[in-house]
Amino acid sequence: MQHNSVLLKGLMGAALLAFSGCAGNQSRTSETAMLPNPFANEKRAARCEVSPLQTDATGRMSVTMTVLAGDGGMCPFAVSKGGGGSYVSFGVVPAPEHGKVFLYSYDNRTYVEYTPAVDYKGDDSFSVELIPAHAQPRRMVAVQVHVEQPAGVAAVAAGEVSKKSVVVAHKRRVVAHKAVTKAAQPNVKK
Question: What DSSP assignment string belongs to the chain?
Fold first, then answer.
């Protein structure tokens, strides 16, 4: 019986490995959702789309991201040195004006996590300076960010929804509920 259990687990593992081979064809959004997160208490943004890392003729790297704010979640992407491995040191120069950046190395990669301010909507940018090793040239990654707000949050921020309109809508629902409840009661004759 125990042998069958081990065999079944082995087959399940092989199937998972076979399916993981298809993961390379998924969108960049799925890849960022699957990045390892050693800080399990951090929340991922509900929407996090990161473009592939681009390198221009001068060696400067760039990436763009679209992040949904309002939930306090972060949007990550990973970089590694040419030939693989994480950078030995890094920094943010300049820092974003409307969010925060957290950098760390884990599992032979360097990770960049951007968290927009909860109430911000618009564009933001920052640059990450990466140091491969002693006496090697530093690399720069320019990050352009577009921060969006969920529909309800954007409407409140724009002043489209006032407290008074929310109260009026609530009162209408209560009145409608009472009317439905009253109509559903059977007529009892005395």
Answer: -HHHHHHHHHHHHHHHHHHHGGGGGS-HHHHHHHS--S-TTPPBPS-EEEPPPEE-TTS-EEEEEEEE-SS--BEEEEE--TTS---SEEEESSPPSSEEEEEEEETTEEEEEEEE-TT--EEEEEEEEEE-STTS--EEEEEEEEEE--HHHHHHHTT-S-HHHHHHHHHHHHHHHHHHHHHHSPP---
